[in-house]
Design goal:
The protein is mostly helical. It is built from 11 helices and 2 strands, in the order αααααααααββαα. The protein is 79% helix and 2% strand. The chain is elongated and about 60 Å long. The N terminus and C terminus are likely disordered. GO terms for molecular function: G protein-coupled receptor activity.
């Protein structure tokens, strides 16, 4: 019993006056991001020219995932602000959605990069049927997005079944401090693997897109619009891929100082 209390000793410092200002900050910034993503989603879906481009639907999927993620952080802020050692319910609920939606958002840069690569390959060198062309076809866009949401949720099933969501040692509602190797591995193979796996896949397709750009941006093939759009997609990929890494480094630095 003493070991258990020592393991969760950080929970006693998780709530209280010192965490109130952090909760207000999290709530304010998360609300702003949710509203921004809502505006982006509405703008994209209400503009016919943007709606016709399949790649924009993946950006909408990422935007919806981020909306849910930061809406979870709004609940996270409420849980930290109003919670206590005897009132931990909302932190566990928020933690579940923070990790599930975070896993989902991590995967979208790789999907966007792969989709763009196979689209320009089809434009440049039309060929017959292939799994990649079928997977990233226009009719498969919505099912692919929905499937990824489902996979992200299922990948966190081990944590759901073991009541592992709650006060994260780094100061927000996510995963509790792990007390067993299987729980740690479950976390590693869901959230962490999704991030680094997506990072690797995104890097591979980013390299392929860069090679395609190098071949086509100076050639007078009439693909100027595709070149410009591909370059824009690559800029978006850099932002949505590197931003979580930057925020994670800041969070790790703050946790190390703590």
């Amino acid at each position: 019993m003493e070991g258990s209390n020592a393991t969760f000793e950080y929970v006693y410092d998780f709530y209280g006056p010192s965490a109130s200002w952090f909760a207000i900050y999290i709530g304010a910034t998360s609300t702003f991001i949710v509203i921004s993503n809502i505006f982006f989603t509405i703008l994209t879906l209400s503009t016919p020219k943007l709606r016709e481009n399949v790649a924009n639907w993946f950006l909408v999927g990422l935007s919806i995932s981020d909306q849910l993620h930061y809406l979870s952080h709004v609940v996270d802020a409420y849980a930290i602000y109003t919670g206590s050692i005897n009132n931990r319910y909302w932190c566990s609920v928020s933690g579940a959605f923070v990790l599930i939606t975070g896993t989902c958002s991590f995967g979208f840069p790789a999907i966007i990069a792969a989709d763009r690569y196979y689209k320009i390959c089809t434009i440049s060198q039309p060929s017959g049927f292939s799994i990649s062309s079928a997977l990233f076809s226009k009719r498969a866009t919505i099912p692919l997005i929905v499937s990824w949401f489902f996979i992200a949720a299922i990948s966190n099933l081990p944590l759901m079944l073991t009541d592992a969501f709650g006060e994260d040692p780094s100061g927000f509602c996510g995963a509790k401090k792990f007390t067993s190797i299987p729980l740690l591995l479950g976390y590693e193979f869901s959230v962490v693997f999704a991030y680094f796996g997506s990072l690797a896949v995104t890097g591979i397709y980013y390299y392929r897109l860069a090679k395609w750009l190098k071949l086509h941006q100076t050639a007078s093939t009439g693909n100027h619009q595709e070149v410009d759009y591909t370059r824009s997609i690559m800029r978006v990929m850099k932002i949505v891929t590197l931003m979580p890494a930057f925020l994670g480094m800041m969070q790790f630095s703050n946790f190390a100082d703590y």
